[in-house]
């Protein structure tokens, strides 16, 4: 199976003023993200507002994004809580030129471990492409346990990876310890990327790489090159952004606001999602401004080790305090 990459971004879906999918903007965003250090993209995941996209919109997005980025990896999100629909959409997506499939754990109906196994193993037979299993119990309502993931990894040839967003480092460690050598563990939570790398993960399917792709790529690369000090400093630098992406307004409203603040507007959101609140927007704006300062410093000095993260953070805090209206 081909290598899918270390840094993939779960791409937002741009909408126009009428909340129709803006395919031209999606292509532009895809090219931008690949140019900023992403190895690939996940299209029509949760961050891409998959619950409110039609199958026709999803399939067209897969085609448009793949055509835009060429050899870069494009993963199609085709999972749902309806098994037969998952199979049908997976089959259709496999004909659009994408490089892989991501299947989220069925939500709301809360399968047993055997139900998860049967669902994923049978859905994977609907495609010749590599499949990533996505475990996000905070959204689906049910955790896919380590035993089930390891069973799928051993039994199903084209289930090649898991996106782990359980937040349970013990469970993730168990998967990393027991998996086949060629099975990949991705963090599904930006803030857990470095801890998951430390226990045997390969990378992340990211949200914040929409606006911090170079830093995320550098952090992962530093870790794989055994420069743990640099990886740690970059992790520290990115902590405020990890938090800002998941403020009460939620994901994707927060990251769409961050993109807008950073000069790449991707439009609004389809109900039941709404735009980030003004309170959250103020936090996101400040974090994005700080992140721009960091990127300039890294471009100048070349590595996080050349910049004392703590001193810069203190300096930024001091400047904010002086500039804040009284």
Properties at a glance:
326 residues; alpha/beta; TIM Barrel; 2 domains; 8-stranded parallel barrel; 13 helices; 8 strands; 50% helix; 11% strand; disordered C terminus
Structure report:
With 326 residues, the chain is of the alpha/beta class. It folds into 2 domains: 1-207, Aldolase class I (TIM Barrel); 228-326, no CATH class. The chain is built from 13 helices and 8 strands. It has helices at 23-35, 55-69, 83-93, 113-124, 137-140, 146-155, 169-178, 193-198, 209-224, 228-244, 253-261, 278-301, 309-323, and strands at 7-10, 40-43, 73-77, 100-104, 131-135, 159-164, 184-187, 203-206. The protein has an 8-stranded parallel beta barrel, surrounded by 7 helices. The longest helix is centred in the C-terminal third of the chain and has 24 residues, at 278-301. It is globular and about 50 Å long.
Work out the number of β strands: 8
Stretches where pLDDT is under 50 for at least 5 consecutive residues are: 319-326
CATH topology group of the largest domain: TIM Barrel
Q: Which range does the strand content fall in?
A: 5-15%
* Biggest pleated sheet: 8 strands, parallel, barrel
**Helical coverage, percent range:** 40-55%
The SS-based structural class is: alpha/beta
Strand order, biggest sheet? 1-2-3-4-5-6-7-8
Query: What radius of gyration results from the CA coordinates?
Result: 19 Å
Anisotropy-based shape = globular
What is the number of independent domains?
A: 2
Instruction: Write down the secondary-structure element order.
Output: EHEHEHEHEHHEHEHEHHHHH
> What is the mean pLDDT?
92
Instruction: Quickly count the helices.
Output: 13
Distance between the termini: 59 Å
């Amino acid at each position: 199976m081909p290598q899918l990459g270390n840094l993939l971004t779960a791409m937002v879906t741009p909408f126009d003023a009428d909340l129709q999918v803006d395919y031209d903007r999606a292509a532009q965003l895809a090219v931008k993200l690949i140019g900023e250090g992403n190895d690939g993209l996940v299209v029509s995941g949760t961050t891409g507002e998959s619950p409110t996209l039609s199958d026709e919109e999803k399939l067209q997005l897969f085609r448009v994004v793949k055509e835009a980025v060429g050899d870069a990896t494009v993963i199609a999100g085709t999972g749902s809580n309806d098994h037969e629909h998952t199979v049908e959409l997976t089959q259709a997506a496999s004909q659009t030129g994408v490089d892989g499939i991501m299947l989220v754990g069925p939500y709301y109906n809360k399968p047993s471990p055997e139900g998860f196994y049967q669902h994923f193993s049978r859905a994977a037979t609907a495609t010749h492409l590599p499949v990533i299993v996505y475990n996000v119990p905070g959204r689906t309502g049910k955790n896919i346990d380590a035993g089930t993931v390891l069973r799928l990894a051993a039994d199903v040839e084209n289930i090649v990876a898991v996106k782990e967003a359980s937040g349970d480092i013990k469970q993730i460690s168990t998967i990393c310890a027991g998996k086949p050598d060629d099975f990949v563990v991705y963090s599904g939570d930006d803030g857990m990327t470095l801890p998951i790398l430390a226990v045997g993960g390969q990378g992340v399917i990211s949200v914040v790489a929409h606006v911090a792709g170079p830093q995320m790529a550098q952090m992962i690369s530093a870790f794989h090159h055994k420069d743990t000090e640099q990886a740690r400093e970059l992790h520290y630098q990115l902590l405020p952004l990890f938090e800002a992406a998941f403020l009460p307004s939620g994901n994707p409203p927060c990251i769409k606001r961050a993109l807008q603040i950073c000069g790449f507007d991707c439009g609004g959101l389809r109900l039941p999602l709404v735009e980030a609140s003004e309170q959250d927007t103020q936090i996101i704006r400040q974090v994005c401004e700080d992140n721009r300062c960091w990127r300039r410093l890294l471009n100048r000095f070349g590595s996080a080790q050349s910049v004392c993260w703590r001193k810069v953070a203190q300096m930024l805090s001091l400047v904010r305090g002086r500039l804040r209206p009284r």
